[in-house]
């Protein structure tokens, strides 16, 4: 298996490390548009070779798009277009006369945090069935090749979207990939995926960004505020260190779902504000006790 990874940052780089270390990939080809990141990825050893976009798509059995979703929406059709141009000539019986087995194995996946726009971008593409929409639910607040780490995906969920739209062999390849990464596979459609990630991931980042801005604004006048910051603050605001290049397109592409969650969040914040303003201890206690039910889901 020759795996080509376009984008050797946190997710792509970590995937490269474990897929090769655990025997899924015989060779990893890397694509990096940023010369500094490309040099770093090569020096760290995230890929066996740093190649061009075209070389990666042409040579790889499995192409992984590990770039921000705004870039992925534009790049995914280009990858599938290149699969079309690679299709070997047909013989008199209408069947391919060379490399049929190799060509039929080529699989294209993405690892982005939103799915609906990607699914729409290739819905009617002639090579749509080569593509499997995926989302490994793992990560940290860091980015770039230096953030890549072994074991990042262990124990986390790996989502496969719209499996019925993809070739069964392609889906099985992705299932094997996630098994290699020690992930549990979950299946859902693109629309449901984007709703759920708005609740469990995207709102967490928005609130962390907002909290960081609030504290930074206050810190202008009170220089010791960060001296008083404890572990609780650090864990709450940790996500505010996330890359704007990654999160700007996520929040714009999943706008409607994120706005709905923000509105709900504002309602809950308003309930706390009213209870605190009125000194209503019973209301405050009730809100906290209601929130404690999250223990049933997250331990």
What does this 3D model show about the protein?
The protein is globular. Helix content is 51%, strand content 12%. It has two domains: 2-189, NAD(P)-binding Rossmann-like Domain (Rossmann fold, 3-Layer(aba) Sandwich); 194-296, Orthogonal Bundle (6-phosphogluconate dehydrogenase C-terminal fold), CATH 1.10.3660. The protein starts with a strand and ends in an 8-residue tail after the last helix. The protein has 299 residues and is an alpha/beta fold. Strand 2, helix 2 and strand 3 (49-50) form a beta-alpha-beta unit. The chain is built from twelve helices and eight strands. It has an eight-stranded mixed sheet, with helices on both faces.
In short:
The chain has twelve helices and eight strands. By secondary structure, it is of the alpha/beta class. It folds into two domains: 2-189, NAD(P)-binding Rossmann-like Domain (Rossmann fold), CATH 3.40.50; 194-296, 6-phosphogluconate dehydrogenase C-terminal fold, CATH 1.10.3660.10.
> What kind of assembly state do the chains in view correspond to?
single chain
CATH-derived architecture of the largest domain: 3-Layer(aba) Sandwich
Summed up, the helix count is 12
| CATH top level label of the largest domain | Alpha Beta
Taking pLDDT < 50 over at least 5 consecutive residues as the criterion, the unreliable ranges are: 95-103
CATH topology of the largest domain: Rossmann fold
Strand content: 5-15%
Strand order of the largest sheet: 3-2-1-4-5-6-7-8
CATH superfamily of the largest domain: NAD(P)-binding Rossmann-like Domain
Annotation, overall tally of beta strands: 8
**What composes the largest sheet?**
8 strands, mixed
Radius of gyration: 22 Å
Number of domains: 2
Class computed from helices, strands and strand pairing: alpha/beta
Shape from CA axes?
globular
Q: What is the succession of H and E elements?
A: EHEHEHEHHEHEEHEHHHHH
Fraction of helical residues = 40-55%
Distance between the termini: 38 Å
Kindly report the average pLDDT value: 90
């Amino acid at each position: 298996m020759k795996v080509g990874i376009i984008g050797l940052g946190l997710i792509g780089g970590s995937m490269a490390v474990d897929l090769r270390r655990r025997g899924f990939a015989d060779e990893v080809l890397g694509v990096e548009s940023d010369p500094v990141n490309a040099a770093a990825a090569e020096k760290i050893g995230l890929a066996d070779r740093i190649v061009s976009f075209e070389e990666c798509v042409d040579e790889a059995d499995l192409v992984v798009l590990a770039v921000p979703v705004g870039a992925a929406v534009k790049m995914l059709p280009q990858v599938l277009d290149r699969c079309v141009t690679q299709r070997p000539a047909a013989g008199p019986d209408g069947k391919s006369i060379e490399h049929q087995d190799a060509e039929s194995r080529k699989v294209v996946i993405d690892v982005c945090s939103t799915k609906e726009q990607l699914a729409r971008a290739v819905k009617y593409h002639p090579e749509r069935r080569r593509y499997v929409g995926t989302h490994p639910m793992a990560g940290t607040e860091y980015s770039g090749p230096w953030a890549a780490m072994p074991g990042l995906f262990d124990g986390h969920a790996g989502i496969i979207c719209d499996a019925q739209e993809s070739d069964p062999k392609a889906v099985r390849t992705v299932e094997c990939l996630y098994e290699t990464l020690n992930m549990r596979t979950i299946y859902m459609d693109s629309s449901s995926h984007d709703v759920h990630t708005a609740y469990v991931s995207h709102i967490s980042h928005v609130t962390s960004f907002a909290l960081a801005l609030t504290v930074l604004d206050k810190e202008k006048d009170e220089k010791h505020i960060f001296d008083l910051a404890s572990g609780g603050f650090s864990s709450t605001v940790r996500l505010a260190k996330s890359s704007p290049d990654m999160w700007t397109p996520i929040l714009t592409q999943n706008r409607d779902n994120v706005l709905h969650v923000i509105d709900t969040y504002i309602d809950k914040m308003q309930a706390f504000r009213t209870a605190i303003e009125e000194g209503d201890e019973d209301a405050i206690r009730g809100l906290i006790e209601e929130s404690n039910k999250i223990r049933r889901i997250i331990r």
